[in-house]
Design a protein that fits this description.
The chain has no helices and 13 strands. The chain is mainly beta.
C-alpha cells in the first residue's frame, strides 16, 4: 500500500479511507547498453480526500405520523413523498474531492445505507446513497476528481430533532 487517508463528512458526515494500490516492479531492460536489475520506483502519489460540503437534508416538514421519503440528488435537487411535505430550501448535497496522481483511474465505493443518530436517541436511515461518478472515474490532469453525493432518507413515525452519522467511502487506484 502506498498510502491511506481518512476524512469525515457529517451528514451528515462522510468518512473516507482511501487506499493506494501497490506499485508494479519493472523488468530489466535487455536492449539498454547498461542493463540494471534494480526495480523501477513507482511514482504513485498517495490518495487524499477533502470534504468540501456535508450532506444535509436541512429541515423536513412532516404531515402527521405516517412514513415518507426525502430524496436529495447529487445535483442538489430534492423531492419528497408520503408524509413528508417538503425538504428545506437549504438542503445541500455532499461534495468530496479526491486528489492523487493525474490521469489515474480510481474505484470509489459508497455504502448501500447508513444510520443517522439523533441527539435524543432516535435513529433514521439513508437507504440509498447516490453520486455523480462516471462509469470509469479518473483523476483529471491536476490529479483531482470531484464527487457529489446525495441520498434517499426514509422516515416513519413522529421523529424529531437533529440526526448525524458517518458514511465510509473507500477509494482505490485501479
Amino acid at each position: 500500500m502506498v498510502g491511506r487517508q481518512t476524512a469525515l463528512l457529517l451528514v451528515a458526515t462522510l468518512i473516507a479511507a482511501p487506499f493506494a494500490a501497490p506499485g508494479v516492479a519493472g523488468a530489466q531492460c535487455r536492449l539498454c547498453s547498461a542493463p540494471t536489475t534494480e526495480p523501477q520506483r513507482d511514482s504513485t502519489a498517495p490518495l487524499k480526500l477533502e470534504v468540501r460540503t456535508t450532506l444535509d437534508f436541512d429541515r423536513l416538514i412532516l404531515l402527521g405520523t405516517g412514513s415518507g421519503t426525502a430524496v436529495l440528488n447529487p445535483d442538489g435537487s430534492s423531492r419528497a413523498f408520503g408524509a413528508i411535505s417538503a425538504v428545506g430550501g437549504r438542503a445541500v448535497a455532499g461534495e468530496v474531492i479526491i486528489r492523487g496522481e493525474p490521469g489515474r483511474v480510481v474505484r470509489v465505493d459508497l455504502p448501500a445505507a447508513i444510520e443517522l443518530y439523533g441527539l435524543r436517541g432516535g435513529l433514521i436511515r439513508i437507504e440509498a446513497l447516490v453520486s455523480d461518478l462516471p462509469d470509469n472515474p479518473m483523476l483529471d490532469s491536476n490529479g483531482e476528481l470531484k464527487v457529489r453525493i446525495g441520498g434517499e432518507l426514509k422516515l416513519s413515525g413522529d421523529l424529531d430533532g437533529d440526526f448525524r452519522g458517518d458514511v465510509p467511502i473507500i477509494v482505490d487506484y485501479l
